[in-house]
Amino acid sequence: MTSVLDTVSETLLPRRYQEEIFVRAQQGNVIAALDTGSGKTYISTLLIKWIAAKDDTQGKIIVFLVPKVALVQQQGEFISKQTSLRVRQFSGATAHDMGDRDGWKKEFEDTDVFVMTAQIFLNLLTHSHWAMAKVSLLVFDECHHTRKNHAYNGIMREYFQTPFGSRPKVFGMTASPIWNPKNAVDSLATLERNLDAKVIAVKEHVDELSGHSPKPTEACLYPNPPATYPDYPSRSLKSRLDLEGLPHEIGIPVDKILTRYEVTFNSLGPFGAELFLYMEVKQRVTQLIQDAVDSAMDLLMPTQYSRTVRTTTVSPGMLAKVHPKLRELETTLADFRDFFDTSELDSEPKPIPLTWCSPKVRKLAEVLFERYADKFQGIIFVEQRHIATCLSIMLGRIPLLIHLIKADQLVGHGKDTATKTHTKGMGTRNQQDTVKMFRERQINVLVATSVAEEGLDFPACDLVIRFDPVQHMVGYVQSRGRARHKTSTFIIMVLEGAQSQAERYLQFLESEPQLRQAYQERDVVSQTIEEEEETQDDPADLAERERYIVPTTGAILTYTSATGLLNHLCSLIPRDKFTPMHVPKYVGDFKATVHLPSSLPLPADLLVYEGPLRRSKKEAKRAAAFLAVKSLHELNVFDDYLLPTKSSRGRENEDADGVPIGDISKIPDILDVHVLDPWVLNRTLWLHVVHLDGCPSAGLVTGTPLPPVELVAGDWFVSTDEPREMVLDPRDTWGQRRAMEDYTRMGLWWCITGRGITLPLTCYLVPITRDYKVDFAAIELAVRHPFGSYNWEGIGEEHYGHLLYMNNKEAGHPMILHRLRHDITPSTKPPVGSRESAFPTYREYWQDKYTRKSYVPTISSDGPCVEGFIVERNIASAYSLENKPSAPLLGPKPTTVIFPLEFCRWLLLPEHVYQTFFILPELCHRATDLWRLREARVALSLPPIADDLLVQALKLPTTNTGFNNQRLETLGDAVLKLAAVVYLYNKFPHRHEGQLDGMKRVSISNRTLLARAVERSLERHLSSENQSIRLWRYVSSSEEDRFLFRPSRRVFRQFPRKSMQDCMEAILGAGFATGGIDMALQTGTALGISVGGPTSWSVRYGFLLRVSKPSPLFLPLQDALGYDFKHGQLLLEAVTHPSFGSNDSSSYQRLEFLGDALIDMVVTDYLYKKFPEATSGQLSWARSRAVCSAALASLAVKRLHLHQLMLINNVGLSIAIGRYVPVLEEITEEEIILYGWKHDPPKALSDVFESVIGALFVDCDYNYDKAAAVTEMIMEDLLVNLRPDLPRDPVSQLMVWVAQSGCLAVRFEKSMSMPELRRHDCMSVLVHDTVVAGPIAAPNLSMAKGLAAEEARRVLGDPDSPHHLSSICRCGKEEPAAEEELLDAEMDELDDETKEGFAVLARIQLEEVEEPDSHVPGEDIDVPGLDGNPDEEDSSGGLAWEHTEGMEISGLASASEDIGLGVYGLSIGTDGSATDAEAHHGDSDWDAISLPDNIDEATVSEEMEVEEMMEVDA
After folding, report:
1. Cα separation of 574 and 582, whole Å?
2. Residues known to be catalytic
3. pLDDT in tens, 650-706
4. Which residues lie closer than 8 Å to 399 by C-beta, 6 or more apart?
5. Backbone phi, then psi, for 602, in 5-degree steps?
6. Do residues 62 and 52 touch, judged by C-beta distance below 8 A?
7. Which residues pair with 1327 in a beta bridge?
8. What φ, ψ does residue 6 adopt, rounded to 5°?
9. β partners of residue 1324
10. 317 Cβ partners below 8 Å, 6+ apart?
11. Distance from C-alpha of 1239 to C-alpha of 1223, rounded to nearest angstrom
């Protein structure tokens, strides 16, 4: 165990009185009552380290609570410096959302000490993020706040609900434990009861404490009462403004302003009062004018908006929206600007005569002047924020102080109110900056409200003045503590004649020693203090309070938390700028009723809750809120953590069905997987008879029974039969297998690869007999002549066009015999224009072509020649899903080539066999796809999706096959969205659009899809192989693998993890394309997607609504739709805007949520069927043009006239719609599709169109086909203008262009055209931080971005422009690592206003418009035994033999060299001689072989000699 004080800072050691308090705090719960500046926080750090070192506190946390945000950082940094513990600071701006359970869980796991505001910790307890029993120490800074309904008291209520043995230790700190000196004993006892602690003070080391926190000298000044101010100008601002005569509709609270004016006049004098009036009225007038202009700007068309911004003047039409009285006030204020507003002037502020100030301010100035000294610092305490603001300005303009005092204000945050005021308070950052400036002596006087009384760490001040009367004992003690220097002075200013103020001060002064004595002599007692609370609430009300704990989570609902929970729920209801903030409304006095907003999707009777009778109005309101929250929890509007259901911004860990979503954080971007693959050979072999155009041609032998295959390859229709088990001769099993392998190698070399293969094959293609058995006799004959025969006797016209042969000088180039040319010999002169015509004879041409260094081929002068067509070898195994005939695989080139007969060998394979070899890659490819889909269908329990569609869904884009899963992924994305939305809409009828949208995002997120794919091992079924056959992939890694009893039907592959989620959507799309929505639901259920199960929607959700006849108001709408509604209430809901606030119907937001998904699905389905050749990117882009806000708004106006039916209760929205309707009526559908991004109609128009379509969908009992037909009919005029080659929007075009150029330093930047309006409406494009376009203004940022991108693309591409990209881009010079940094960027962090985000988004856009890369990670791995350098291939695809010298058998030797001579076990010496041939073969009974009649003995002898050298080493 470490020592208690082993980590104390070297610069801070405990004083004896601090150790005294620390020792007593170890014995029990205490409240340390020590003066400001005496080191209470340091004592708490000693206690924190002591607690943290104890064994019984493991797994618990320490919580340090503060009452104000400004104290969080200060105390957190101090504890971090004084301890080695892990300290985290949390305030409202830095804390996680309460719904982010993962985030909070991690914080609790990784933190020892939490420094936070009390309300946050109370929320953590309320929502069951943590329990009081898991806290070891609670430290309350400024603990005197533990009273009434302060959060401190709420935390202690939970403390008392914890069993006695599980409660944490409590340590309170305060300089003023007694709130009310008139009843000190009760005040002290109440604090002790509330904190379950004893108040203690220093007993043994009082003298030391007095030395470190001395009492300042106290004095009272009595300024003369205010008199008249004859020197102040008679032309006052108040008289000129004439506020009393302002009309009420302007919106200025005159009474409130004048009341504050009078208070300021009495306190500061006429100048201070007029200064307040000037600042307050100016701020309000400016805000009202800006709001009016802002509203008028919202109604401008884009061209008008841009013109207004360019001229920077407000048009008379816009100013007409401003009330004339506001313009008059603005003019009057401008006349007084030089008098009051010195901040806008370059010169020094004008001095203020003391005769313009109140006697109180004059006395204050005298005191400051008298007390001023070098390094002087002081604080002036006032009660109100506007007094602090005005006084801090005045002190800097009083002649006596103008060169001495640098003053600033320090006030609290204030409360958010609907009416903004100049003195609305300071933000935390501004407070911290001001305090820092005061510490660093950049300012020497603070004019502060009570925010400076406690907690904040200030240096000891020379002078502390209470400018306004002291209201309570705490304020007196706390503010006096700021004057803790030995020479400090504490002054309280009391107006002459204000006897009550003087008496209150004297009471504080005289009672403090007695009050201190009340707790200074106390000892800590062990007995528990009975729980009570000091409150003004009626005891009977408190006795009747309820407390509800959620059984499953421990979340706590109390009377004090209920109102906050209701407010939070309502604040999350989605709304547009035309809808006011949703809040609960309370009516009634001692029996309150709470009315919830109608936008909550609840029946009318569940929106109203009446509470019980109570004895106070506040308690009645709390009781009603408590009842409402408890009831809403039962309705699942609040979840079991008492949070609005599924409304958090944190990452969800389960889907809508409550099924956990696995952690994918550890899944790498590139997956190493073992994919199912049928290509193995084992002890059992299967024969598949291959048919070409219906005729049996050969047999495919595999170790896996394959499904029957049908496809079109070249100009043949290829099919295979059901597999048959092969039975080999048990006496020669090895020999027969070896013969089939050699035969297949030979066919592959001739017809496909042009190179040898050393690894064992995993399938054989062999000749068959008439009874469909392997023809081993034909195999044996062929493998004796793997490179063909030189014997051309017997070859005649019947073989023309059928015989396959090869020039042994150009291995790898098979040819089909055209004819034997007995009329041409090697000595013949080539015809003019032929490739040989440069030489006198063919012989000389061939000698020149094939001579290599010292090797000169021997060519006879006479003898016939062979003329043939070069056959293009098959270089890929792609096939067509549509069975479209492709170019014939054996289609010869139109020109022929001539070679001497002695160079040529013909293949001893029948025509139908070598034809089968040519289509073997496609056959194997198709067989692989069908076998994998069969395995996937069983493993994933998929419904009967069409084979071709499922093959397509499992095919990754990198396979280079001509088809992949991207189109189906686009379709499936829309299917997934619709299925999830319909399920959520019906499963959660009491959740609003915002909640549903959050749940939808979880259901359709890539994270969820990837997790579900991993759970089902989807990666095992994906096809990622590049179908190029440069490397023959159907091989085994070793000889032993082929004869395992249970061979592993898996191969190693690599592909991006994104492929998994894409395939999930593609399979869903394949299900929809096969069997519509019903099969899509079955597919989604099989894949684990939250779609509500396989039951059709009409069965699940149909026929549940009450039939009601629509209002006659909707008859024109039904006629336009061509559909009669059965449920009129749906139409009423569909046209009700949230601003309408009807109790008869909810707003259209939920139906809009449903209709949006349906429209997206209908448009995607339409495009998918209409454009079968369109890419995924083209489909997505065309869809986006049809479902954009402008397109749907035009349909709402032109087709359905919904603007005439909408129920709206907002003048601004009605005007905006009225202004845009003529524009939408005039614009054509084609213009909408092409330039929709340039239009910005009110979103309500597109929303109401979506809601009507959603209502239609519900009304027809979720019959997709019927709803889709109506929707497609309504959108027909738009849809006919869609096409795959639509130009992209300017932003996409710019991104694609930039990505192609390779620049990585482009970004957007937003700005404000008119800062006084405080709206970001401008966008610029920057390249390497140079502005190349903009700032361009538009009514919204999206449009401004489009216009800026359009201009940037023009400028960057203009060679004459100074901003041409080539002249300003420095990528590759200054930023070589920029692109690498982008690889780690998270998609949800991408922002096109950063260089990194723009570059990644640009890359994504580029990938959508370009063909996918055919490279697959891992595909081009060098496999041992597959030799041959592709760089040595000539332009015609054959292999060049630069290193073959003196070879008599040129073609043979060439091929052997290229394949490393490993295929046939031959080594060729540098002189062309064969070596080591005998070492690689055994004795053979050659005489037993019967040869064809046209192969004579001489040929046989020659062939045997060659093949002995070439025999494969087994």
Report:
1. 9
2. 1156, 1250
3. 457 888 888 988 888 888 888 999 999 999 888 889 999 999 999 999 999 999 999
4. 351, 352, 353, 354
5. -125, 150
6. yes
7. 1306, 1330
8. -75, -15
9. 1309
10. 296
11. 9
Angle of helix 1058-1086 versus helix 1006-1015 axis, rounded to 10: 70
Of 1208, 978, 1133, which is closest to residue 601 (Cα–Cα)?
A: 1133
Dihedral sign, Cα of residue 1061, residue 1063, residue 1068, residue 1073: positive
pLDDT interval class at 116 (50, 70, 90): very high
DSSP single-letter state for residue 838? T
- Helix 40-52 vs helix 70-82: angle between axes, to the nearest 10 degrees? 60
The H or E element that residue 119 is part of is helix 118-126
Beta-strand runs (E) in 1413-1506 = 1467-1468, 1474-1475
Instruction: Give the residue among 581, 580, 577 at the shortest CA–CA distance from 294.
Output: 577
Tokens 């780690």 belong to residue: 1384
Per-residue tokens: 1314: 């008119």
Q: Is the dihedral of CA 264, 265, 270, 276 positive or negative?
A: positive
Report CA 83 to chain centroid distance, whole Å: 37
Convert the pLDDT of each residue in 171-190 to its tens digit: 998 887 877 666 777 788 88
Q: Kindly state the DSSP code that residue 100 receives in the 8-state scheme.
A: -
Rounded Cα–Cα distance for residues 1100 and 963 (Å): 36
Distance CA(1303)–CA(1369), nearest Å, equals 7
Other CB atoms within 10 A of residue 484 CB:
22
- The DSSP line for 888-910 is -TT-EEEEEEEEEGGGEEE--S-
Q: Which helix (H) or strand (E) holds 687?
A: strand 686-692
Compute the Cα dihedral for 750, 753, 756, 757 and give only its sign.
negative
d(CA 1465, CA 1512): 5
Selection from 652, 566, 678, 550 nearest residue 611 by Cα: 566
- Location of structure tokens 């003196």: 1446
Give the H or E element holding residue 64: strand 61-66
- Containing 674, the helix (H) or strand (E) segment is strand 670-676
What's the confidence (pLDDT) of residue 1075? 95
Q: What angle do CA 422, 425, 427 make, to 5 degrees?
A: 125
Cα separation, 708 vs 773, whole angstroms? 18
Residue 1462: DSSP 8-state: T
Longest dimension (CA), the chain: 143
* Angle between helix 1149-1170 and helix 1176-1186 axes, rounded to 10 deg: 140
Where would I find the beta strands (DSSP E) of 183-288? 198-200, 217-221
Q: How far is CA 136 from each of CA 168, 339, 529, rounded to the nearest angstrom? A: 5, 60, 19
How buried is 659 (Cβ within 10 angstroms: 0-12 exposed, 13-18 middle, 19+ buried)?
A: middle
Radius of gyration of the chain from its Cα atoms, rounded to whole angstroms: 44
Q: Name the least confident of 485-489, 800-804, 906-910, 970-974.
A: 485-489
Q: What are the strands, taking DSSP E only, across 648-694? A: 670-676, 686-692
Dump the DSSP string for 457-512: --PPPSEEEE-S---SHHHHHHHHTT--STT-EEEEE--TT-HHHHHHHHHHHHHH
pLDDT tens track for 151-168: 898 999 899 888 888 899
CB 281 within 8 A of CB 336: no
Residue 1182 and residue 1231 in contact, taking contact as beta carbons nearer than 8 Å: no
Three-class SS state of 1021 = helix
Intra-chain end-to-end CA distance of the chain, in Å: 72
The answer to whether the peptide bond before residue 612 is cis (omega within 30 degrees of 0) is: no
Tokens 């106006």, residue? 1197
List CB contacts of 179: < 8 A, sequence separation 6 or more. Answer: 144, 147, 187, 191, 472, 473, 474
d(CA 793, CA 820): 11
Q: Which residues pair with 955 in a beta bridge?
A: 1023
DSSP H or E run through 505: helix 499-520
Q: Per-residue confidence at 300, pLDDT binned at 50, 70, 90? A: low
